């Protein structure tokens, strides 16, 4: 069987800093009306992706800060949750994005913290898991959202942390990875959520770092790109999910960073800037953040340093006095 | 936004696309405003249900629309026909986006909360149908587990299903994963299962040696065969007794001995207690049923701590696999997965001359799998250190000189040693904090270890002499050494003049020897 991978021959790999800045700044402008509307069901996260990426490559500068904060306020709900856009329902995913953006703007203290804490903690179930909203979908992505959100607000003690950890542990698999629920298959994105949540909880002792680190290292394909599961195509977003987890586990040297850099740079859009999932596809803010964030972990160019647990600039995490746990190299 | 190929277009095509977008945008805004208005007016009828169908068929990820539908269904007390229409809609949406979290969840929610006569068996057949079309869809695999437990499908049948999927394509990692879960859930950890799984995985792996799914599963099966003993050594340091383990204790296990004192954890693998009753001179580990799992006498060292304890039958099966791998490698000497599995098996079984064989093949792995060469370096370090531990009963001195070590594995096992020689290794990228376990170490040599700094060097209480010759250490990092209270002598060479001066300036009590 042929291995699933892409070829990077003859693809331009120069760093297109100015184009990326233009690409990211174009969101929220007239010419992106269509995309902006069609994607409004996740707009709050879209803004977090775009603004964090811009912060990292634009010297920490974000334009229209006031307008952005007003937008967050317009998505606030009475129950303490945030929706992706006005008119939509609140959800833990967008509540985390709203808090992340507020932290980026250094205005998290202006949020209704008590209400947010109330909302997030109300979503924890007896077994320690979290649901995404009142409709009851359980997923380890929401465990990460809850722990990240509360710790950013300095309120991690408001939930049953021990139970949260126990639930994540119950999602651990034979390969050392984690899935979305007990029994669910390991997946790069969900592994990041679980290891990230354990890093926030200071409970990385749950992880078998050598077993999982090796499985994650095996995600690297000859093109240099990383996939999220065995026998799948590489994708720039796993450059973050997989590589940041390797960083948290102190095993980032188990893959070839130069090759990964090459793959990420080959996934830039040479015309309008931004990054796509893999070379030749349409760029979007999601892959743009995760491409830039992974490059940041490799100290590329002058990209500001990012925190591997929170996916926020280190300066923000330091300002908040947070010290997410990481493991040292063996 | 995944897998959307960028297409190059002419100006005219661009303009046409813009008009098309404009039309779609208007349709979207009108439709979604219509739905939201109905919701504001608290409309919970069939018409309201109809209003969001088109939008969801175009984009099944708009969660709020599903939420409104849930509200409507709860109000409606719907007929079986409406419920079936709802399930049909989720099916249609999953055809548009088979990875839509919200469409999968809505389907599950309807069956759980609305459909009082939910047919979970039909649902299981549907999962089978979907998985035959898209064999790696993890949403569907995960959903299948929920469904299988709802209709109490016997584990045997589910194992049979994974078998069919694996037989049609060995490369189905999702199916291998599900097997691992089914065995654990059925409590089937006995040897016969291990043996039959090993033979299944062998035939899969040999059919296509470049496919990693079966090999990863096999690595797990081999990894499960871990040494059964816990305790490496128990000994006294000052007024404390330290217990050194090879693996962490399960939560419900207890440590017993030395007058049943309370044991505290320094680290998952190191426990200590205060000295009070030395009449008892052994320590035991007991499980939740008070059965003794392991025990050792004070000051004894368990040299065979890494030895496997398996039945003769399983050993025969594993030995046969080693032979098959040798054959495969003679035909395909650069088959990475065969080579790696061969190394793992040799190391697990500890056959004659295994260490030379392992090291030789790890060297080859570094060449044929360069992306992961640092992983193999660290694996080699672990094997070298384990080999030393398993072959030395010297309780005072550790010799790990010149082994090409890149990583500090098992340092906690050297808790009681006085002289530790780590010279001539490549520890430039390792974290010196791992040395924190060397509580009794008086003489430590890190000569020629390619160190560039002393960051994270721990406060070693007994350390007297430290050899740092032939390293390029930045002088700014040597402050760490002042935390070692007993440190008397640091050995440097002639090329480390600046380091020598800096050390002089930060401490008067340490004697610097230039050799």
UniProtKB/TrEMBL annotation, chain A:
Listed cofactors: Zn(2+)
Recorded GO MF terms: metal ion binding; Rab geranylgeranyltransferase activity
Record-annotated Prenyltransferase alpha-alpha toroid domain positions: 18-312
Catalyses which reaction(s): geranylgeranyl diphosphate + L-cysteinyl-[protein] = S-geranylgeranyl-L-cysteinyl-[protein] + diphosphate
Pfam families: Prenyltrans (PF00432)
Any one cellular-component term (Gene Ontology): Rab-protein geranylgeranyltransferase complex
Keywords noted in UniProt: Metal-binding, Prenyltransferase, Repeat, Transferase, Zinc
One annotated GO biological process: protein localization to membrane
CDD domains listed in its UniProt record: GGTase-II
InterPro entries: PGGT1B-like, Prenyltrans, Ptb1, Terpenoid_cyclase/PrenylTrfase
Enzyme Commission code: 2.5.1.60
Gene3D superfamilies for the chain: 1.50.10.20
Free-text cofactor note: Binds 1 zinc ion per subunit.
Highest taxon listed in the record's lineage: Eukaryota
Cited function: Catalyzes the transfer of a geranylgeranyl moiety from geranylgeranyl diphosphate to both cysteines of proteins with the C-terminal sequence -XXCC, -XCXC and -CCXX.
Similarity comment: family membership: Belongs to the protein prenyltransferase subunit beta family.
Subunit structure: Heterodimer of an alpha and a beta subunit.
Protein name, entry field: Geranylgeranyl transferase type-2 subunit beta
Organism listed in the record: Cinara cedri
UniProtKB/TrEMBL annotation, chain B:
Annotated function: Catalyzes the transfer of a geranyl-geranyl moiety from geranyl-geranyl pyrophosphate to cysteines occuring in specific C-terminal amino acid sequences.
Keyword RNA-binding attached: no
EC category: transferase
EC number: 2.5.1.60
InterPro entries (alphabetical): LRR_dom_sf, Prenyl_trans_a
Similarity comment: family membership: Belongs to the protein prenyltransferase subunit alpha family.
Domain of life: Eukaryota
Any one cellular-component term (Gene Ontology): Rab-protein geranylgeranyltransferase complex
GO BP terms: prenylation
tRNA-binding among keywords: no
Identification of the protein by name: Geranylgeranyl transferase type-2 subunit alpha
Organism annotation: Cinara cedri
Pfam families associated with the record: PPTA (PF01239)
PANTHER family: GERANYLGERANYL TRANSFERASE TYPE-2 SUBUNIT ALPHA, PROTEIN FARNESYLTRANSFERASE ALPHA SUBUNIT/RAB GERANYLGERANYL TRANSFERASE ALPHA SUBUNIT
Gene Ontology terms for molecular function: Rab geranylgeranyltransferase activity
Catalytic activity: geranylgeranyl diphosphate + L-cysteinyl-[protein] = S-geranylgeranyl-L-cysteinyl-[protein] + diphosphate
Keyword annotations from UniProtKB, A to Z: Prenyltransferase, Repeat, Transferase
